[in-house]
């Protein structure tokens, strides 16, 4: 390794590497929208929605302004309201529970599994019992495919069906992942994703999408996305909605990125494989069962019993950036502390919050830089 490579700054997620790889096609796609002056719901938006449906194997896709709006649109389409309970993981980003509270419903926090960081089926059952004991009506389960790996849908989906609950897949980190060969966006009753720039498929600003299986739901989502307007008369509002449209420029960006997305997913597998092979002897590395394909939104290690702050300081001193997703479970945060937790609490979520940290990861992470990161981790954990 040359001195210049050994000392070059390392990007946690190198978006510029992707931009360089895509090249002039992206610039031309953006300029085409600028020249057209069709900045809102231009033709690229419908083209993107069709391309996303084809990619994910879902009949209908509705693009929207961001991943949080995507979650909210799905719940609004199901008319989630006060008195309803929505089951969601304790170990995730706040947006998953935030949209539930927006609608006056009650989020109930469910614990996760150590093996994959995703919703624990046994805790889900306990959460449904908790909701009913509180006099709430369980309506929806929101699974989150954390860090890009699909949840245990073999167990979670039958539980939702047995209790008559809708299942909403929060695929903000997992769009492109599969479970038994099925894209995560096609699992459950609806799915939502985010196109935030750092996501596996990200745009040059903010964006999101909702995936559904029938034209009636799509029509409701289309109305909700534009202030609840009638789909035939823009000045007749038939429901309370939002301003959730995706900008045409972002649609053009995503169309170009979708062209290279399959190759990037394959590259992510190789980066994760090299990390796992090199680090399994010093930390608990993420494992993906054979019937699941992760898109590796983050590569997250566990170091139980170690001084995480000291480890991260050591990596920082060696020029290796890190991140903690997530340092505090949702039920321990001030905004959500008043909401119920399933069963006897979420001890796994609390333990993981103390143990995890994520390394630089993206599909353009070259072997030399990855080897430098691996060496730094091994040294920090020696």
Automatic annotation (TrEMBL):
It comes from Elioraea tepida. GO terms for biological process: polysaccharide biosynthetic process. Keywords: Aminotransferase, Pyridoxal phosphate, Transferase. Belongs to the DegT/DnrJ/EryC1 family. The keyword Transport does not apply. GO terms for molecular function: pyridoxal phosphate binding; transaminase activity. It holds the Pfam family DegT_DnrJ_EryC1. It comes from the Bacteria. CDD domains: AHBA_syn (cd00616). Transmembrane segments: none annotated. This is DegT/DnrJ/EryC1/StrS family aminotransferase.
């Amino acid at each position: 390794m040359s001195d210049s490579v050994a000392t070059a700054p390392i990007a946690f997620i190198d978006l510029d590497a992707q931009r360089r790889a895509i090249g002039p096609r992206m610039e031309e796609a953006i300029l085409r929208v600028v020249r057209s002056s069709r900045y809102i719901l231009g033709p690229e938006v419908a083209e993107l929605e069709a391309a996303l449906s084809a990619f994910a194997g879902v009949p209908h896709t509705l693009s929207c302004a961001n991943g949080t709006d995507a979650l909210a649109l799905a719940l609004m389409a199901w008319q989630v309201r006060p008195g309803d309970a929505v089951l969601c993981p304790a170990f995730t980003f706040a947006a998953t529970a935030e949209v539930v509270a927006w609608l006056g419903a009650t989020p109930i926090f469910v614990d996760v599994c150590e093996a994959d960081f995703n919703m624990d089926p046994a805790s889900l059952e306990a959460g449904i019992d908790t909701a009913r004991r509180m006099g709430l009506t369980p309506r929806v389960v929101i699974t989150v495919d954390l860090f890009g790996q699909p949840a245990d849908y073999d167990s979670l989906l039958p539980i939702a069906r047995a209790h008559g609950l809708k299942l909403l897949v929060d695929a903000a980190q997992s769009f492109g992942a599969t479970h038994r060969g099925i894209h995560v966006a096609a699992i459950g009753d609806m799915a939502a994703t985010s196109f935030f720039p750092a996501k596996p498929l990200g745009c040059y600003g903010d964006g999101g999408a909702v995936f559904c299986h029938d034209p009636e739901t799509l029509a409701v989502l289309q109305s909700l996305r534009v202030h609840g307007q009638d789909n035939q008369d823009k000045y007749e509002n038939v429901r309370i909605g939002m301003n959730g449209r995706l900008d045409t420029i972002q649609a053009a960006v995503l169309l170009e990125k979708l062209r290279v997305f399959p190759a990037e997913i394959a590259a992510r597998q190789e980066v994760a494989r090299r990390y796992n092979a090199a680090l399994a002897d010093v930390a608990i590395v993420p494992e993906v069962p054979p019937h699941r394909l992760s898109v590796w939104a983050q590569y997250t290690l566990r170091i139980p019993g170690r001084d995480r702050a000291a480890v991260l300081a050591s990596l920082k001193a060696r020029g290796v950036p890190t991140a903690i997703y997530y340092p505090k479970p949702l039920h321990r945060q001030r905004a959500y502390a008043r909401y119920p937790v399933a069963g006897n609490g979420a001890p796994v979520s609390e333990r993981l919050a103390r143990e995890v940290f994520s390394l630089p990861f993206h599909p353009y992470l070259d072997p030399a830089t990855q080897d430098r990161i691996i060496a730094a981790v091994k040294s920090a954990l020696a």
